[in-house]
C-alpha cells in the first residue's frame, strides 16, 4: 500500500511540474506574435553597442545617450522611440508597413515649441527587411518597410550595420523557443534623400517653358480684353447712331464681310474684330477666348452626336476610379482587404475595367470617320457648284458639338487632296499623281494630329518625371512605377507614339499606352479613309480583314501563353496582350463603321420599334456580361481567348447601338443624360485629365507619412477628390497648351488657304 501511494504521489508531482512548465509565463516567449513584437526593439540596442560592432564613434555615443535616456524615461527619447517603426497590427491581414512617423521625427527637434528636445539632431531612414514566420503565420517571405528615427550622426550604413547585428540576436530568440523565423535587412535609405529639385536642369527647362507660356497667356489676355472692350464700345456707338437716325446705319448694311466675321467669331467664342496673322498668333494663348471655348455649354445647331460627350466623360471617371483603387491597394496597411474586396460581385467593375478605354477607341474611330467624310462632301459640293471658298463655313467649327475644336483640326489638310482628286478622271486604279497626293495628304493629316496632341503630352511627361523623381526621394513607400528613370531614358518613345511596343517595365507613363494605340489606329483609319474616297468596297473589305486578323492574333497569343483571365490580376498579360494594338483595334474599327453609317444617313434613320425594344436590352446585356460575366473570378484558357479578343469588339458593338439610337432619336432618357449640356466642358477636358490624373495620385499618395487603412467608403471619397483635382489640372493644361496649339493650327491652315486662293 505504501509503495502504491508513493507511486501516485510521484506521478502527481510530475504532472504538476509539467503542467506548471506549460502554463508558466516563460512559455509566452514561444508566441509568434510576442516574437514579432520584440523585433526592432531599441532597448536591446545597448547589448549590441556593448558587443562587437563597427559603428562610427559619434553615432555610438549618440545612440548610447539615447538608449540610456529611453530607459530613464526622458520625454525626448520616448519621442524618438515613438517615431520609429515598431510592430503594427494587421500583419496577418497584409500589413507591410512599420513606418513610424517621419514628421514626428522631424518635429521633435523643434526647440521653439518643446521644452525637452534631443541633445543631437535626428534623421529618418526607411529599411527594407524580409520577414518569415514558420509555415502558418507568414509562410512566404514578406518584404517589410520599417521606419527608424535615429541620431543624424548615424549614416544609412551605420544603421544597416546595427540592424544586421540585430539579426543574430533576433534569430537566437526564435531558435530558443522553437520558432522557425527569419529577419533579414536588405537595404536602408534616408528619407528624404539627396535629390534637390531646384538644382535639376529639367526643372529649369520645364519652369522656363511654363514661365514663357504664363507670360504669353497674360499678355494675350490683356490684349484681347482691350480689343473686346473697344469692340463693345464701337457696337454701342453704332447702336446709338442707329437709334438717332431711326434707320439702319450704313455700317450695318454695307459691311457684310464684317458680319460674316462676327458670326464666325461667335462660333469661336471670340468677341472682337479679327486681327492680322501675327496678332492672332499672340492672341491664341488668351485665357478669355480659350476659357470660353472650353467651358462653353452652348449646344450646336447640328448637335446630333452630343451623346458622345457623356460617354467620354463617364469613361474617364471610370478610369480614375480604377486607378484610385490600385493606388490605395498599394499603400494600404491591410492588403488582405483587397482580397476581401475582390470577392465582391461589384468589384468586377474595377477588375474588368479595361473596356472603359475601348470607349475612347470607339469614339475616336467614329469622329475621325465622320469628320473625314463631312470634309469630303463639302469639298465635292464646292467643286461641283463652283462656290467661292469664302461661302463655306469654317471647317474648324465645332462640328456637331461632339468634339472640341481640337478634334476637327485633323481634317483641314484634306481640302487640297479632294480638290485635286475630283479634277482627275475616274479609273479603277491610282495614277502616280494620285498616289503622291494621297501620301502627302496622309502625312499632313498625321502631322496635324501630332502637333495638336504633343504639346500637352510632352508637358505632362516632363511634369510626371519631375514629380515622380521628387516623390521617390521623399516617400517612405517604395512605388512600383519608376518614371523618374524610365521617362529620363525613354521619353522619345512616347513622343513617337510607339511606347506600347516595349515592355511595361521600360515604359514611361504606363497609362499612356492608350495614346500610342490611338495614334496607331489613327494611321490605319486614315489610310482606309483615303482609300475609301475612290474604292469604298476595297476599304470596307480591308477593314473587315484587319478586324478578323486582330481576333485571330489575340486568340493565338492568349492560347499560346495558356492565359486564364482573373479578376485579381487584370494586368497579368500586359506585355503580350493588354496594351498591344492587335488586341485593341476592334472598337476603333466598329466606331469607323458607325461613323460612316451615321454620316451617310445624316442621322435620319427610322428604326422599327420592335428593333428598339430588342436593341437596348441586347446592348445592355452585352455590356453587363462583359463587365460582370466573370462570376467565378476567372475564365479557362479558351473562354479567356474569346473574352480578350472578341470581347473588346463586342463592347464596341454595344456602343454602336447606343450611339445610333441616341443620334437618331431613340435614346430617350439615356440620350438626355449623355447629352446634358453641363458635360460638354468636362468632355473637352478628358484628354488632359486622362494624362495627368495618375501623376496627381502618385504624388499625393506616396508623400503620405504612413499607410492608409483600406475601406471602400474611404476609397470612394478619395476618388471624388482625385476626379476634381484631375479636371482642374486638365483645365489649366488645356488653357496653356492644348487650346493654343489648336488655334495656332487654325491660323496656319487659314494662311495656307489664303495663299492658295491668291495663287
Automatic annotation (TrEMBL):
Keyword terms: Membrane, Signal, Transmembrane, Transmembrane helix
Transmembrane spans: 203-223, 313-332, 352-373, 442-463, 511-531, 538-561, 581-598, 610-631, 651-673, 685-704, 716-737
Biased composition (Polar residues): 242-254
Bias kind Basic and acidic residues: ranges: 256-266
Domain Nose resistant-to-fluoxetine protein N-terminal: 56-179
Highest taxon listed in the record's lineage: Eukaryota
Region (Disordered): 242-266
InterPro entries: Acyl_transf_3_dom, Nose-resist-to-fluoxetine_N, O2_lipid_transport_reg
One MF term in the entry's GO annotations: acyltransferase activity, transferring groups other than amino-acyl groups
Signal peptide start and end residues: 1-20
Protein name: Nose resistant to fluoxetine protein 6-like
Organism: Vanessa tameamea
Gene that this polypeptide is encoded by: LOC113392264
Amino acid at each position: 500500500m505504501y509503495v502504491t501511494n508513493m507511486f501516485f504521489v510521484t506521478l502527481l508531482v510530475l504532472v504538476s511540474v509539467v503542467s506548471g512548465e506549460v502554463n508558466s509565463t516563460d512559455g509566452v516567449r514561444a508566441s509568434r506574435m510576442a516574437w514579432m513584437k520584440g523585433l526592432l526593439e531599441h532597448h536591446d540596442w545597448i547589448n549590441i553597442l556593448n558587443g562587437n560592432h563597427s559603428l562610427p564613434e559619434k553615432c555610438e555615443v549618440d545612440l548610447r545617450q539615447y538608449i540610456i535616456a529611453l530607459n530613464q524615461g526622458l520625454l525626448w527619447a520616448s519621442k524618438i522611440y515613438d517615431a520609429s517603426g515598431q510592430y503594427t497590427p494587421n500583419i496577418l491581414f497584409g500589413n507591410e508597413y512599420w513606418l513610424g512617423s517621419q514628421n514626428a521625427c522631424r518635429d521633435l527637434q523643434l526647440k521653439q515649441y518643446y521644452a525637452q528636445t534631443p541633445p543631437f539632431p535626428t534623421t529618418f531612414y526607411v529599411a527594407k527587411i524580409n520577414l518569415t514566420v514558420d509555415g502558418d503565420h507568414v509562410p512566404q517571405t514578406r518584404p517589410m518597410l520599417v521606419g527608424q528615427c535615429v541620431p543624424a550622426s548615424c549614416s544609412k550604413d551605420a544603421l544597416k550595420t546595427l540592424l544586421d547585428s540585430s539579426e543574430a540576436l533576433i534569430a537566437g530568440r526564435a531558435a530558443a523557443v522553437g520558432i522557425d523565423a527569419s529577419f533579414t535587412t536588405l537595404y536602408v535609405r534616408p528619407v528624404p534623400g539627396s535629390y534637390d529639385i531646384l538644382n535639376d536642369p529639367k526643372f529649369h527647362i520645364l519652369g522656363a517653358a511654363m514661365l514663357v507660356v504664363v507670360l504669353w497667356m497674360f499678355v494675350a489676355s490683356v490684349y484681347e480684353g482691350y480689343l473686346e472692350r473697344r469692340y463693345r464700345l464701337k457696337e454701342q456707338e453704332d447702336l446709338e447712331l442707329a437709334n438717332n437716325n431711326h434707320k439702319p446705319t450704313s455700317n450695318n448694311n454695307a459691311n457684310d464681310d464684317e458680319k460674316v466675321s462676327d458670326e464666325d467669331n461667335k462660333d469661336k467664342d471670340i468677341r472682337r474684330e479679327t486681327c492680322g496673322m501675327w496678332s492672332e498668333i499672340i492672341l491664341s494663348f488668351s485665357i478669355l477666348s480659350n476659357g470660353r471655348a472650353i467651358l462653353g455649354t452652348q449646344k450646336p445647331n447640328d448637335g446630333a452626336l452630343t451623346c458622345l460627350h457623356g460617354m467620354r466623360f463617364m469613361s474617364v471617371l471610370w478610369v480614375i476610379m480604377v486607378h484610385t483603387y490600385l493606388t490605395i491597394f498599394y499603400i494600404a496597411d491591410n492588403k488582405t482587404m483587397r482580397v476581401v474586396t475582390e470577392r465582391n460581385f461589384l468589384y468586377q467593375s474595377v477588375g474588368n475595367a479595361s473596356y472603359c478605354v475601348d470607349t475612347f477607341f470607339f469614339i475616336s474611330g467614329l469622329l475621325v470617320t465622320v469628320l473625314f467624310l463631312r470634309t469630303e462632301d463639302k469639298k465635292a459640293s464646292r467643286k461641283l457648284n463652283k462656290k467661292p471658298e469664302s461661302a463655306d463655313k469654317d471647317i474648324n467649327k465645332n462640328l456637331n458639338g461632339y468634339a472640341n475644336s481640337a478634334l476637327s483640326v485633323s481634317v483641314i489638310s484634306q481640302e487640297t487632296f479632294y480638290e485635286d482628286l475630283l479634277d482627275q478622271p475616274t479609273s479603277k486604279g491610282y495614277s502616280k499623281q494620285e498616289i503622291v497626293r494621297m501620301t502627302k495628304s496622309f502625312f499632313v493629316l498625321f502631322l496635324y494630329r501630332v502637333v495638336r496632341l504633343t504639346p500637352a503630352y510632352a508637358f505632362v511627361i516632363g511634369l510626371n518625371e519631375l514629380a515622380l523623381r521628387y516623390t521617390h526621394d521623399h516617400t517612405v513607400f517604395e512605388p512600383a512605377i519608376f518614371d523618374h528613370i524610365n521617362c529620363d531614358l525613354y521619353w522619345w518613345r512616347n513622343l513617337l507614339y510607339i511606347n506600347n511596343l516595349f515592355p511595361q517595365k521600360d515604359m514611361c507613363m504606363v497609362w499612356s499606352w492608350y495614346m500610342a494605340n490611338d495614334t496607331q489606329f489613327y494611321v490605319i483609319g486614315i489610310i482606309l479613309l483615303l482609300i475609301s474616297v475612290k474604292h469604298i468596297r476595297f476599304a470596307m473589305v480591308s477593314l473587315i480583314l484587319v478586324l478578323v486578323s486582330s481576333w485571330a492574333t489575340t486568340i493565338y497569343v492568349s492560347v499560346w501563353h495558356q492565359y486564364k483571365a482573373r479578376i485579381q490580376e487584370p494586368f497579368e498579360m500586359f506585355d503580350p496582350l493588354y496594351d498591344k494594338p492587335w488586341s485593341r483595334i476592334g472598337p476603333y474599327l466598329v466606331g469607323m463603321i458607325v461613323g460612316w453609317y451615321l454620316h451617310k444617313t445624316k442621322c435620319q434613320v427610322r428604326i422599327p420599334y420592335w428593333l428598339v425594344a430588342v436593341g437596348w436590352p441586347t446592348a445592355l446585356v452585352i455590356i453587363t456580361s462583359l463587365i460582370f460575366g466573370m462570376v467565378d473570378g476567372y475564365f479557362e484558357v479558351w473562354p479567356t481567348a474569346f473574352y480578350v479578343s472578341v470581347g473588346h469588339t463586342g463592347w464596341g458593338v454595344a456602343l454602336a447601338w447606343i450611339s445610333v439610337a441616341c443620334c437618331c432619336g431613340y435614346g430617350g432618357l439615356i440620350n438626355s443624360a449623355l447629352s446634358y449640356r453641363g458635360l460638354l466642358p468636362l468632355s473637352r477636358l478628358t484628354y488632359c485629365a486622362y494624362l495627368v490624373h495618375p501623376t496627381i495620385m502618385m504624388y499625393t499618395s506616396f508623400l503620405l507619412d504612413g499607410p492608409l487603412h483600406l475601406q471602400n467608403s474611404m476609397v470612394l471619397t478619395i476618388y471624388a477628390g482625385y476626379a476634381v483635382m484631375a479636371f482642374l489640372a486638365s483645365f489649366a493644361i488645356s488653357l496653356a497648351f492644348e487650346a493654343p496649339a489648336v488655334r495656332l493650327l487654325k491660323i496656319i491652315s487659314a494662311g495656307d488657304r489664303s495663299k492658295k486662293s491668291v495663287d
